[in-house]
UniProtKB/TrEMBL annotation:
Residue ranges of the region described as Disordered: 127-146
Domain Amidase: from-to ranges: 28-412
Transmembrane annotation, as ranges: none
Pfam families: Amidase
Protein's name according to its UniProt entry: Amidase
Superkingdom to which the source organism belongs: Bacteria
InterPro entries assigned to the protein according to its UniProt record, in alphabetical order: Amidase, Amidase_dom, AS_sf
């Protein structure tokens, strides 16, 4: 059941419904059965909509729509009509929302069927939820969009919605081995989302492939098809590492392998040193995030303080200690560097860089490092994670492609081409095990 959803992908699922090869509610039934079979181990879902309501919604789908009958999950910081929103905090009465978030409404109008809310870290910050990595239940799935990535990885649904403030889409995509996309800042409307950081929060999504990512982008980003075949081979700026965090040997080998594949297929790759000015963006991210987060969560912390984690309360305290002049100074840094692509990367079409420092770490108390993500989040540039191989322990590894601000369609077009270069046999590094504890089948 779960394998069927993973193997077909969004376009084929909708195509089968559109061609009446499958009933409108067929894949919703498959998703619900998969969740029932697997989620006691993965714990990717915060809540599932009543089955009767979901089947009724699927049965009413217009088969002419581009996402007809496609089941989706939505991160539990976004409103979905008929489902409660708890923000990963477990503090609130389970009251069903009356209206969809804007992005959910757009997907529903395109024929998608929301079947439940996926687990998030507490208020999309650092305190992790209960979700486990499907490839090794002892390891983190990443955060804060942990449930969204894990649900796609195990085949419960073909696509899910997530959010990113620092690395909350790209990191879980990397750890769980799925495609993950963070659009340009401001590209997707945030109405109906709990916005914690006004200057950083972005709505993105996960899929089993870049094609799935593109199918959602067709609805949320454009009235035209996004995945256009590139007319030429790309010019790629390659950033192998930064001073922000060490890159482990397996992740570096995957990056080199990807660069070699690009060159072998006609791309022009140029090694670029991490721009020295960009190190200031790490401080900018921390300052902007803490300042805005503290003010967004101040009323929640005041009313239900005893029910919140110490890590969240510490961020609120730190943010309240930041002066408005410090905040404005870092906002100026953000603004001044956002339009410097040509200065630092010349005529490159995209940047090739790591998504994460290495495989998913052991343990569930933390969600891993966002060192390779926060700079792009501050800049607001679109990012795409593509699985590209495995570590010596059999865990997913991949690459991150970064595009120009508001160049989302171009990035996804290049990303589709890059994904096609992946060589399954050559992209496994000295695998010592075959995911012995994995629940993926």
């Amino acid at each position: 059941m779960e394998g069927e959803i993973r193997q077909l992908g969004v376009r084929e699922i909708a195509g089968q419904v559109r061609r009446k090869e499958r009933p409108k509610d067929y894949f919703v039934h498959r998703s619900l059965a998969s969740i029932e079979a697997l989620d006691s181990q993965i714990r990717a879902w915060a809540c599932i909509a009543p089955r009767a309501n979901t089947i009724e919604a699927a049965s009413a789908v217009d088969t002419a729509t581009p996402l007809a009958g496609v089941p989706i999950g939505v991160k539990d910081v976004l409103h979905v009509a008929g489902m409660p929103t708890a923000y990963g905090a477990q503090l609130f009465a389970r009251r069903a929302e009356e209206f969809d978030a804007a992005c959910v409404g757009m997907l529903r109008a395109a024929g998608a069927v929301p079947i439940g809310k996926t687990v998030t870290a507490e208020f999309a910050y650092k305190h992790p939820g209960p979700t486990r990595n499907p490839h090794d239940l002892r390891r983190t799935p990443g955060g804060s969009s942990s449930g969204s990535a894990a649900a796609v990885a195990v085949g419960m649904v073909p696509v899910t919605i997530g959010t990113q403030t620092g690395g909350s889409i790209i990191r879980p995509a990397a750890f769980c081995g799925v495609a993950g996309f963070k659009p340009s800042f401001g590209a997707v409307p945030r109405d109906g989302m709990k916005v914690s950081c006004e200057s950083l929060d972005v709505i993105g999504w996960y899929g089993t492939s870049v094609s799935d990512i593109g199918a959602i982008a067709d609805v949320l980003l454009s009235d035209e098809r996004v995945l256009q075949s590139p007319a030429r081979r790309p010019r790629v700026a390659v950033i192998c590492g930064t001073s922000l965090h060490a890159l482990d040997a397996d992740a570096r080998e995957i990056l080199v392998m990807a660069e070699r594949a690009l060159i072998d297929h006609g791309a022009t790759c140029t090694q670029i040193a991490f721009p020295r000015e960009f190190t200031l963006l790490v401080e900018a991210h921390r300052t902007i995030m803490q300042y805005e987060f503290a003010r967004s969560l101040a009323s929640v912390a005041r009313v239900v303080r005893s029910g919140l984690s110490e890590v969240l309360l510490a961020c609120v305290r730190q943010g309240r200690a930041i002066s408005r002049s410090q905040y404005r100074r870092m906002k100026d840094v953000q603004s001044s560097l956002r339009d410097t692509w040509s200065i630092h990367f010349g005529d490159a079409d995209l940047i090739l860089t790591p998504s994460v420092p290495g495989e998913a770490p052991l343990g569930l108390a933390a969600t891993g490092s966002s060192a390779f993500n926060v700079v792009w989040s501050v800049l607001g540039w679109p990012c795409l994670h593509i699985p590209f191989g495995r570590s010596r322990h059999g865990l997913p590894l991949g690459i991150q492609l970064v595009g120009k601000w508001n160049g989302d369609a171009e990035l996804l077009g290049w990303g589709s081409w890059v994904e096609s270069l992946r060589r399954d046999q050559g992209a496994t590094i000295r695998s010592e095990s075959r995911m012995a504890s994995s629940v993926i089948r």
